Amino acid sequence: MQYKYKKKLQNAITYFFMENKRSDCPISCSLEVFGDKWSLLIIRDIMLRGKVSFSEFLASEEKIATNILVNRLNHLESEKILVKEVSPLNKSKFVYSLTQKGADLLPIVIEIMDWGAKYNKNCPRKELGKRIKSDKPAVIKELSLELKKKVK
Fold first, then answer.
1. What is the extent of the structural domain holding 79?
2. Quick one: angle between helices 2-19 and 66-78, nearest 10?
């Protein structure tokens, strides 16, 4: 019963935000989905770092608070960016995976990484960043093919 209530509340919140968007500009509409401080980092962790569980997201270097992580995961799930499923390895835990809608954010995530490395000297390019700088289209193609195998 509690799960049904939670889902109804999530749907009401999503409906409220969809009906009360700032504008009809595609950038503004996109930012309503993933424009907060944490959503793209969660997407990055799934997409590029292979993280799938709540505890793995909590262990990320950015140190997201548990209540914010719960909120962001619920929001991304309600926006159909992520799918939450019972872990096949531990029935008492959940795992998250990207939907096609979430996987379609790959070029955006890559561009943001490239931009951040280019203009912020405190964000040096690591292995993936160096590959992006060398041949961005090939990296996007390779990662897209990998994501296709994992998309729910």
1. 2-150
2. 70
**Alpha-carbon gap, residue 42 to 39, rounded angstroms:** 5
The SS3 call for residue 116 is helix
How far is the C-alpha of 73 from the C-alpha of 70, rounded, in Å? Answer: 5
pLDDT 10s digits, 79-129: 999 999 999 999 999 999 999 999 999 999 999 999 999 999 899 889 999
Residue 60 belongs to domain with CATH number:
1.10.10.10
> Total structural domains in the chain?
1
Instruction: Determine the distance from the C-alpha atom of residue 145 to the mean position of all C-alpha atoms in its chain, rounded to a whole number.
Output: 18
Give the three-state DSSP class for 123: coil
Q: What is the largest CA-CA distance in the chain?
A: 53
